[in-house]
Amino acid sequence: ETGVTQSPTHLIKTRGQQVTLRCSSQSGHNTVSWYQQALGQGPQFIFQYYREEENGRGNFPPRFSGLQFPNYSSELNVNALELDDSALYLCASSLGSARAAYGYTFGSGTRLTVV
Amino acid sequence: AQTVTQSQPEMSVQEAETVTLSCTYDTSESDYYLFWYKQPPSRQMILVIRQEAYKQQNATENRFSVNFQKAAKSFSLKISDSQLGDAAMYFCAYRSADYGGSQGNLIFGKGTKLSVKP
């Protein structure tokens, strides 16, 4: 059983650029969520995908977008990067179903630095 | 909106001793799930323990146990026989049981940094 893998592990981008972060879900998991964790803070929910459709979104602007593919891998895209986008981005996969509480399997994150 | 508060930014414990990390939450829902996650320097969030709100019995996982007080909206984590490998950031998290849209997401506290002294 594979866990959740994220790539790249570290990334430095310039303000105004675009970035794509990637996540490979745990085998059998059909739901993926993305979180932003600023330094010294707890993770904050960006959005969630279930069966390739976005089915939940946190308080993040539209320049944060995502995709989920048929193999349940996922991408997080951020356009027009701002300095405040510097953070650890965590991907979490789960077996989504109503009233399920199996918890989430997290990846080790991508550390994004915007300069 | 639900919130999670961890009032202890840092805690320290002697190896083999017991430590309790505090967490309070605010919600108007009656059915939900609570979690404790550990985040070591490797950055990966690791599930430590999970509690279902409709279960009165406190969850336990080996050396980890919780004290769930639903009326007080309190969810503390007790670590017994602390080990050096327990040193990490610990996050308390809430999730609505109404699994629909963004209600399926986790709401985290700001975390408690636990140090274990040899």
Give the termini distance of chain A in whole angstroms.
38 Å
| Beta strands of chain B, count | 12
**Rg of chain A, nearest Å:** 13 Å
Sketch the topology of chain B as an H/E string, one letter per element: EEEEEEEEEEEE
Helical residue percent of chain B?
Answer: under 10%
Largest sheet of chain A: 7 strands, mixed
Structural class of chain A: mainly beta
> How many helical elements of chain A?
0
Mean pLDDT across every amino acid position of chain A: 90
* Model regions low in confidence, pLDDT < 50 over at least 5 residues of chain A: none
User: Largest interface by residue count?
Assistant: A-B, 32 and 29 residues
Low-confidence stretches of chain B: none
Mean pLDDT of chain B: 92
* DSSP strand tally of chain A: 11
Overall 3D shape of chain B = globular
Question: What is the CA–CA distance across the termini of chain B?
Answer: 41 Å
Descriptive overview:
The complex is a heterodimer of chains A (115) and B (118). Chain A has no helices and eleven strands. The model of chain A has no long low-confidence stretch (mean pLDDT 90). With 115 residues, chain A is mainly beta. In chain A, strand 4 (31-37) and strand 5 (44-50) form a beta hairpin. Chain B has strands at residues 3-5, 10-14, 19-21, 24-26, 32-39, 46-52, 60-61, 64-69, 74-79, 88-96, 107-108, 112-117. The interface between A and B is medium-sized, with 32 and 29 residues.
Give the topology.
The complex is a heterodimer of chains A (115) and B (118).
Chain A: E1 5-7, E2 10-13, E3 19-24, E4 31-37, E5 44-50, E6 53-57, E7 64-68, E8 74-78, E9 87-94, E10 105-106, E11 110-114
Parallel strand pairs in A: 2-11
Antiparallel strand pairs in A: 1-3, 3-8, 4-5, 4-9, 5-6, 7-8, 9-10, 9-11
Chain B: E1 3-5, E2 10-14, E3 19-21, E4 24-26, E5 32-39, E6 46-52, E7 60-61, E8 64-69, E9 74-79, E10 88-96, E11 107-108, E12 112-117
Parallel strand pairs in B: 2-12
Antiparallel strand pairs in B: 1-4, 3-9, 5-6, 5-10, 7-8, 8-9, 10-11, 10-12
